[in-house]
Amino acid sequence: MLVEIEQKVVALSELSVHNDNLLLEGKAHTKDEAEQLAVKLRTLKGSLLELQRALHDKQLNIQVRLQPR
Fold first, then answer.
1. Is the Cβ–Cβ distance between 45 and 10 less than 8 Å?
2. Tell me, what's the pLDDT at 59?
3. Residues 41, 26: Cα–Cα separation, whole Å
4. Residues with Cβ < 8 Å from 50, sequence gap 6 or more?
C-alpha cells in the first residue's frame, strides 16, 4: 500500500510539472483552469504525503509491538 501511494505521489509530481508547462504557454482561459488544477494537485499531493506518513508510523508501531521482548 505504501508503494502504491509513493507511485501516486510521483505521478502527481509529473502532472504538476506538465501543468506548470501549460501555465507558461497557455491562454487566459486555459491558464485559469491550469491554476485551479495546480492548486488541487498540490492539495492532493499533500494529503497523500500525510496519509503515507501516517501509514508508515502505524506500520512502525505495529512492528515494535510484534517484536519479541
1. no
2. 92
3. 18
4. none
End-to-end CA distance of the chain: 28
C-alpha cell at 25: 504557454
Contact 36, 23 (CB under 8 A): no
Q: Is the pTM of this model over 0.70?
A: no
Alpha-carbon distance of 17 to 21, in angstroms, equals 6
Q: pLDDT, tens digit, for every residue of 3-56?
A: 787 788 788 778 777 777 777 776 656 777 777 888 888 898 899 889 999 999
- Our CA dihedral for 10, 48, 18, 39, rounded to 10 degrees, sits at -160
Report the sign of the C-alpha dihedral through residues 19, 22, 24, 28, in that order. negative
